[in-house]
Design brief:
single chain, alpha/beta, Rossmann fold, Alpha-Beta Plaits, five-stranded parallel beta sheet, flat, disordered N terminus
């Protein structure tokens, strides 16, 4: 988060009326960084990209994705930050009390009637932006992920750096494991937020069961976890990963309609501490190994071996002048099909200046013809 966003909380205003959007921006622009969206779909896409938005003001009646649908998207979001955002509904004269009650039951935080006074907008923005920031700051201060009880990303950096420094200073082994639940997004979409959160929590609990007291575990993504294992070499790390897989693969979740299981892929590293690397480098190595496991069809656990993936070298066919002459002869004779496919690119490149010349001559001819007609008139 940059310094400007710390000084100015970010607010999203969603309304299909440009007048309303600009009025809100004028009223709040001095104290807040304002994002504007003309409908719920644009707003939803914006929320995926802007991580620092702390309050949403939205109209109900909008094209593409209306306010009620946007609210449902937010409350059912995979991201806990988005799901917990304060959402203030901008209501019009046509919005009945029953409509308001329905929206409130769906998770609306508050209401403001249009046309609104600046004091109404400012007071809501101030109250809920402060509340949203306090929640974020509280999570950072506690250092724990609220859903799993594991460390959050901030604490991982702090605790992991200390463990890495100790290992490096005393030349002791240390390893890091990144792992991620596979096809989690499909599970979320098919079975809903409650089932998804239950899976995340259960995996966190089973992760704690295979940990030693000195190990460090954190949740750093929606379904992504990290283990830092002090005094653990490659062989012992493989044993830990195997225990994790055995424990988590036994989990069965009852959705009420069916029973589902989860799997995960993992990447791990045991860095050579004789090299001058930092804790962040070790995390990057393990994450790189994880990405290889994710893209692999038959390797669910990948060890970072330090060798970058090399793109296969592509050898372009050698096309001689004799090949070009023969290709032109085939073109003149109308035997296009006889030109080898691997020669086509070179032939087109050779013809490009000629085709440009033809186009220019054609344009000049059209211009001359038009000029003659004008003179005749």
């Amino acid at each position: 988060m940059n310094e400007q966003s710390v000084e100015k909380p970010e607010i999203l205003v969603v309304d299909d009326s440009k007048v309303i959007r600009l009025a809100a921006k004028k009223m709040l622009g001095d104290d807040y960084e304002i994002h504007l969206a003309e409908d719920g779909q644009v707003a939803w896409e914006m929320l995926q990209k802007e991580n620092d938005i702390s309050v949403v003001f939205t109209d109900l009646s909008m094209p593409n994705l209306n306010g009620m649908e946007l609210l449902e998207h937010i409350r059912n979001a995979e991201s806990e930050h988005i799901a917990a955002l304060p959402v203030i509904i901008l209501t019009g004269h046509d919005d009945t009390e029953s409509v308001k009650q329905t929206v409130f039951d769906a998770g609306a935080t508050d209401f403001i009637s249009k046309p609104f006074e600046s004091i109404d907008l400012i007071s809501r923005a101030k109250a809920y932006a402060r509340l949203s920031r306090k929640v974020v700051e509280l999570e950072k201060k506690t250092g724990y992920d609220q859903l799993t009880g594991l460390y959050n990303a901030t604490s991982l950096e702090e605790q992991g750096a200390k463990a890495f420094s100790f290992a490096s200073r005393h030349k002791l082994s240390i390893s890091t494991v990144y792992f991620e639940i596979t096809e989690f997004q499909e599970c979320f979409l098919n079975h809903g937020k409650n089932v998804a959160q239950h899976i995340i929590t259960a995996v966190g609990k089973h992760l704690q069961e295979v940990m030693r007291e000195e190990d460090i575990a954190a949740r750093v993504g929606v379904a992504k976890y990290v283990l830092v294992l002090p005094m653990t070499n490659r062989q012992k790390t493989e044993t830990v990963v195997s225990r994790m897989r055995e424990s988590i693969n036994k989990l069965v979740f009852d959705t009420g309609k069916e029973r589902i299981r989860v799997n995960f892929v993992a990447g791990y590293t045991v860095p050579d501490l004789l090299e001058e690397i930092q804790f962040s480098d070790m995390l990057e190595q393990a994450d790189t190994a994880l990405q290889r496991a994710i893209s692999s069809a038959d390797e669910p656990v990948v060890y970072f071996d330090g060798e970058p993936e090399v793109e296969p070298e592509v050898f372009l066919p050698v096309v001689t002048e004799q090949d070009i002459e023969q290709a032109f002869a085939n073109i003149i004779d109308g035997n296009y099909y006889r030109i080898p496919e691997q020669h086509l690119v070179t032939v087109v490149e050779r013809l490009a200046p000629f085709m440009e010349y033809v186009d220019n001559q054609h344009e000049e001819a059209i211009a001359d013809d038009a000029e003659e007609k004008n003179i005749a008139v």
